[in-house]
Amino acid sequence: MTITRHEPSAIFNKVVEANGFVFTSGIVADDTSQDMKGQTKQILAEIDRLLGLCGTDKSKVVSASIWVTDIRNRDAMNEVWIEWTGGQNLPARACVEARLAAPVMLVEIAVVAAK
Description:
- By secondary structure, this protein is of the alpha+beta class.
- The protein contains two helices and six strands.
- The chain has helices at 36-53, 74-85; strands at residues 3-8, 13-18, 21-24, 61-68, 92-97, 107-114.
- It is globular, with a radius of gyration of 14 Å.
C-alpha cells in the first residue's frame, strides 16, 4: 500500500492518501472573525482544495466528522453544508458539540473521500 502525505506541519499532515482513500485533518477557518456560516464556507473551500490536490472531489466524500462549539448553531452550518453538497452524494456524517482549540473557532470539519 502506498501512503502519500501532503502539507505536513510539526504534528500532523493536512491530508493523507492511502489505499484509494483521502483523509483530511480537522480543518478550521483561517479567518475566525467570521460567523458560523463564514467559517463553514472557508472550511469547505479548503476541503475542496485538498481533495483536488489528491485527485478527487466532494462527490466522493464517504464520511464527515463535524465539531461545533455550540450545537444550537448547527442550523447555520447545515445551510452552508447543504449548499456545498447540493443535496447530492451525501456522506455518512456525525456532528457533535465540542470545545475546539481556540474559542474563536466555531466549527471544524474532517472528511474521508474515495479517489
